[in-house]
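Render this sequence as a predicted structure.
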Amino acid sequence: MGADTFSPDVNGAAKFAERLASGLAARGHDVHVMAPAASSKHGTWTEEYEGQKITAHRLFSLRWYPHDWLRFVMPWRINQNSARIIDEIKPDVVHFQSHIIVGRGMSIQAEKRGIRIIGTNHFMPENMLEFTLIPKAWQEWAIGLAWKAARRSFGRAESVTTPTKRAAEFLERSTGLRGVHAISCGIDADRYSPSWEPRTENRILFVGRVTGEKQIDVLLKAMTLLPAELDAKLEIVGGGDQFKNLQHLSRELGIADRVAFRGYVTDEQLREAYSRASVFAMPSIAELQSIATMEAMASALPVVAANAMALPHLVHDGVNGHLFEPSNPDDLAAKLTEVLTASPEVYQAMKKESVQLIVPHDIQRTLSTFESLYRGEPVTDPVTDITNATTPE
């Protein structure tokens, strides 16, 4: 498996790669991961995730300082490193999680050796523009180049996947590829503990990277528009380059006493945050799936999310929450108010629908589908969009 971002990075692509690697290892596969070193130390060693051991091939990397955590491997050495590691392992299949550097090198070298290649896309070039220092006048040109590069790498793969139908359509439209599979990142719902107790407060939760495309500023502005009698609190879990800016904005808006910035937390603290929340808010306009939203649903939270990219695959308006007009704090505030003022019966129904809607995203189904692709078997994409949600008994 090749990844340009992997643990200890905190983002959806890195988390998926970690869960996939550990899940496959738990099924008895010998899993190797090639990824940037998280520090100056590089080499090959054993790493453990979710109780499973994998072999990590950590390549020499440098920090990309316009970004708050991103590290990258040397592009001019990726072919040499990929050839060396592939020849050493002699893998049955190569699965790259990003085409940018690592996936490019691995796909070139695996193709030369006749090894089956699977490619998964979690990336939108538009999300990285603010960290590239590219002048605005050149950005459209740069995006075009990025998608052409993606087309070359994914074109070497026997099968190409991405987490949702909408993300698959987006990738096909951007690259000209066809037959992209929509395979959910998957989630182990048993790890989360829904609370069915009556609410004693109105607590809104956001979990994710604290970056521009997440549009957390829209959520902060929406907080100022909520009815005062709700006495709503906002909890923001995650870190990123906009952390201090958003703290400053909350003070400017006069809501700093009602907003808690938690930063990075442990898995146990994250589960506790889901359990004590009343509603989950996801204002992002660039989600190819949103693992955080899936975790919230597994925790039986109603969700209010932007009607953008893949979020409508998870949030069914009026069923397990509401969709709001992207970038519109007034509409976000209105939809949050709807959830927080819902009758106990309606509120409990939304919670139950979230739990039901997450069932098709079971991680074991995801693992089985990828195993079939690794064997070269035809697959039917797992159902990731239920149009008629049903409430569990």
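Summary. Residues 189-359 form a domain with the Rossmann fold fold (CATH 3.40.50.2000). Residues 386-393 have pLDDT under 50 and may be disordered.
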